[in-house]
Design goal:
heterodimer, A: 306 residues, OB fold (Dihydrolipoamide Acetyltransferase, E2P), Arc Repressor Mutant, subunit A, 2 domains, five-stranded mixed barrel, three-stranded antiparallel beta sheet, 24% strand, B: mainly beta, 3 domains, seven-stranded mixed beta sheet, five-stranded mixed β-barrel
Amino acid sequence: MTVRETAWRVSARELQGSVEEERGEGEKVASYVVSPYGARMNRVLVAGALSPAEPVGRDDPPTFWRARLTDPTGTVPVTAGSFQPRAMAQLRAGPESRPAVVIGKAHLFHGRDGAAQLSVRAEAVRAVAETEERAALAEIGRQTLDRLDLLDRLERGPAASDESLRAEGIPPLWLRGARASLRRYPESDRAAFRASLASLVRRVAGDLGPAPVRPSIPPTVTVTPAAPPRPAPAAPTGADRSEESVFLELVDELSEGSVDGYADLRELLQRIAVRGIASGRAEAVLNRLEEGGAIEEPIVGKLRRS
Amino acid sequence: MTAAEIPAPPEVRLRDLSLEVSPVEVVGRLVTLERREVPRRTDGVARPLLVGLLTDGTATVRFSWWDPPRDGIERGEIVRAVGAEIREFRGRAELVFTWKTRVEPAGEAELPRVTPEELPRRLLRDLGGPAEGFRIEARVVRIVPKSVTVGEDQRVVYEGLLADRSGTAVVSAWSDFGLNAGEALRISGAYVRTFRGRPQLVLDERATVQRIEAGDLPLPAEVLRSPPRPIGDLEDGGGGEAIAVEGTVVHVLPPSGLVFRCPRCRRLVAGGLCRIHGEVEGVADLRARLVLDDGTGSVVVGADRGLTEKLWNVTLDEARRRLQDRPDPSVLEEALLEAVVGRRLLVRGSVSRDDFGLNLAPETIEPVEIDLDTAAGELAARLRGPGG
């Protein structure tokens, strides 16, 4: 019996932190991405601000498009190819960033360095009113907290039987997801993740405006998701300036050496690390340069000088 | 050993049959009869055998009657069997009437008198199981007379819904018990039948219905306005009546939109052909098969014309006009999908399951408005709360 895969309500941050995969064996079996926070996802539902789509690859006309969905917790790439003509049309529909609900398949891409990057292959994209987006985020928040509570419970008392938990109305799928999460991410920092949901709640309440149009994608995804809240922009110091110049130098070097004229973000960050700049710092510098208009990221993971 | 020393077999009710006590004396009504012939192993001579079901109001039991009278045995007759033997068949006791068993006609009055109180009460949730010999205490949620054709006869069957604290069940009464919505009932002598994988309660003229104090039985309004349940929960149970679910439309399954149906059986017509009636002139209809997902599971909601028109805001006439303008039904299906996907709906109806998952036959479909301030307040409180 093949039952339709349920769409997990997840935030961008949870998707960014998901690096574990469960591959089925044999033909026509579903694969799942396991998150640290209790989701075992084949299909997901996400909500936020959807950026305009950009073509990927060199086909003319383009057969693959990518946009970014940003919610108050983070950003995920959303893709659609010509095999999903409806989703592709919907993804390309807007010239401007717009509130949207996206239903699609969670897909993990492993780069050459082994780092995993998650994207959502869109099946349905619906442009919605802002209130609808906030309602969807409310549901995402509620179900995420429910899953975190379940994980806490399972960790505290692993003896609780599935039958007794089911009798309380805990869906069987969630139990399975929670157990997979605990197995795959024994060390995950759930408290920090939980705290990061505050921004989502503020957005539901309407205290926080729509997500900014051009946020940056965190370069590599790590299992410890609790990056500290971005500090208020201060005047750049001399040290900042020197880091920026190292950064720009590398961008130039890499883009000159590459076939497509772009600097690969992952490669860049590796070289940065070699020069002794921590990845958290590197992200901050990258953000500053992007905001300052020195470099741009027209394709996710690809940089160039503006 | 003389005959006087052999104790007379005890008279037992069918629900009390046990493999340890044999032979026994029983009284019951013959419900089904089938004559067979079984070749004897020693010489191959055919031996007549009558098999069937016997009921006494407490249970229904299979029986095998070796060398029965050639005729004069009819369905519905009541018999007394003295010295019937018990045999185990697939883990259950059944009766064997041998040459040592005396079978004689009996009267209605000899059937065990079963008062509703002494029958075990069964909750509607547990309706599946032995088909009779129980009592139900439940509230009538709704009841509607329906005219049906049985063979040549036109009959009225009263169809409705019963509820207790454990759940609900469809009831069909083939006699008029004067049932009204809101009444609390004690029912005995009813039996269970399975329809589309779901057990239903059937009342015929042998059933007894008493009005009782409602106690804590749910009110009809409670049942009909029950809060939505997680879809993942329903997957365990297998379905039910008057169930509410709330979720987001994540997909619309084909065939949806404008379809054509056989005028005789309402099956979908493909290529001008009905599966049963061959070449027919299809009748236009609207439908939508919505995949509703609430994050715990998903269910296919089969919306009929009325509900589809309301949801889509396109009437059947309008859909036909559009098809004339652009003769491609898939364009209509796409338009319907665009109109509903991502929408949040509260749907009520009966849920059943098949090999592909859960299906919901909706009675009502309503859009859901979320109070964002309340939702944000609840989330904020949870974030502040213990563990946050």
